[in-house]
Amino acid sequence: MERPDKHPGPVRLSFNLQYTTLTSVETMGFDQRKHRRIPFGGYIHFWPEGGDLAGPGTWGEALNLSESGLSFTCEKSVLKGTRLEVEIKMPDRTGYLRMLSQLVHCEPTGPGGKIWNLRVHFLEPHLEELVAMRRYILQTADPALAAVTGWGRVLVQGMPSVVAHYREFSPEQSKHWTEDTAYMAAAEIAPLARFQQVLEASLGNKTPGSVRLKGTLRIKEKSMAWVELTLAKGRLRLLGETIFSKQDPEEEADAGLRVLAYNKEDVKHLIK
């Protein structure tokens, strides 16, 4: 690998794979694959956590990208578990994204073992600055789904907002959401004290009856919606019914959702 003399320009991408939306009959298509992975080319730059970010760092070449992490090659072996500051350039935005990451894979590749294949896991996917990356991944992997997905945040009084993306149910999905065995009704969380602690820390209430959502896409009043919240400990998918919905000119869409159900897998993960 030839080390660049200066910071590279915009990443050049080559997409050669075919993507399909992965759904389950059991979940009736409400939820998609947890982390889509797309081919991603171009130079990346990384430093040890706490290192001098003004220093030279180490260059690598990206292979693929998902919401949860990045695979790349470089001419340097790095100890598994090392925390790194990784910088990438997204093609659809100016500037660079810098993400705190942890190395989860490192092995030699190619003749002579002079090139190393590395994979890092992003440690702070809940940051609002990373929404641009997540939108780009979805747009690349599934343009049709991206067209009906809104991006925004759940507003919590007196607390930081929570990054979210969401979709309105089709009329057919709205009729049958109670049949989705992947979800538990909001009333069922009453005995789950640890999950209630997560909700209180994130949404300001142990049993939030409703949430306020602001974002790029307006959802119709009295409709059903699927929402994925990106919390510090992981994602939380929920189903809700629109209480109100409005959008003033030049403003984000604004909606209130009555919380109806939570994804069981996410609840289990968040209370570990």
Task: Please render the helix and strand layout as text.
Layout: E1 37-39, E2 43-48, E3 58-66, E4 69-74, E5 83-88, E6 97-109, E7 115-122, H1 131-141, H2 143-147, E8 150-155, E9 162-168, H3 171-176, E10 183-185, H4 193-203, E11 210-215, E12 224-231, E13 234-246, E14 253-263, H5 264-270
Antiparallel strand pairs: 1-3, 2-3, 2-5, 3-4, 4-7, 5-6, 6-7, 8-9, 8-11, 9-12, 10-14, 11-14, 12-13, 13-14
Q: Could you give a short description of this structure?
A:
The protein has 272 residues and is mainly β. The chain starts with 36 loop residues before the first strand and ends with a helix.
Tell me the helix content.
10-25%
Strand content: 35-45%
Strand-pairing-aware structural class? mainly beta
Topology order in helix (H) and strand (E) letters: EEEEEEEHHEEHEHEEEEH
Shape: elongated
The N- and C-terminal alpha carbons lie at a distance of 42 Å
Main beta-sheet strand count, sense and barrel state: 6 strands, antiparallel, barrel
C-alpha Rg (nearest Å): 20 Å
> What's the total number of strands?
14
Number of domains: 2
Q: What is the mean predicted local confidence, pLDDT? A: 84
Quaternary? single chain
Please report the number of helical segments: 5
Low-confidence stretches: 1-28
The strand order across the widest sheet is 2-3-4-7-6-5
